[in-house]
Design brief:
11 helices, disordered N terminus, about 5% strand, about 75% helix, 3-stranded mixed sheet, mainly alpha
Amino acid sequence: MTVTNHSRVMEFVLLGLSSSKELQPFLFLIFSLLYLAILLGNFLIILTVNSDPRLHTPMYFLLANLSFIDVCVASFATPKMIADFLVEHKTISFEGCLAQIFCVHLFAGGEMVMLVSMAYDRYVAICKPLHYMTIMSRRVCIILVIIPWSVGFIHTMSQLAFTVDLPFCGPNQVDNFFCDLPLVTKLACTDTYVISLLIVADSGFLSLSSFLLLVVSYTVILVTVRKRSSVSMAKARSTLTAHITVVILFFGPCIFIYVWPFSGYSVDKVLAVFYTVFTPILNPVIYTLRNKEVKAAMLKLKSQCLKTGRSALIRNVLFLET
């Protein structure tokens, strides 16, 4: 970063979710449990998909990658937010702030495109079932995972390009629990109106284009399903409900924040918590509760773990007796 003659801000103060000291221990407990649930739920899906050969299909391969991105989305800011509940002065270094901006746009942008990849998988499975395994080859599946990370990286680098050379020499209070780019740019010691519009246009374009692709994809799928038997339509609806629910839960807050960025800060905080904490914890619940194959695989994994644990216990007992 180019250093100017301004007295550069070395750290930012994060105002967090609440200024109430009485609420801090309660929030610490709640968000610690939620973060633990995010890690357990998403890593359980990854472990289940990898351990059960019946789940070695394109759909579950993409689902496991979505779970990994969910862990990343929850981890770029939530651990620091939890730690900040225990301290009075919540600060983050300038470099740490840039790192959070980099991560949020990398992971959030990647998740948007990953949902599009999953929609494409469902489109091929439902609209072209006879050619599904031919089209969704291992090579195609890998490409469908690489594209979201590539788009997320390009997106976050374009966002950082608007920020790294801004002069920060005065105000340093960010009214959120992490460094959200629209809030940080407003602290710069220069007119950032044009830059703010470019940031909104960049994020808004990615959010809206991904959302429109998903709407078109699922519309085509539903129209195709309606032309077939009621049995296949019921099965497809059961599969699609989980996908569409996740899309709405993720894109709703993102589009609201970046297409209508001048809403109240308290609303922004609630929405930020929603897509960094609640969406990553809801995704495993939504996909597993409506999926018999995943639930069966988890029960099988549980029985294997219990069997392995009992065998290890018996060996230890026999060893001690000898």
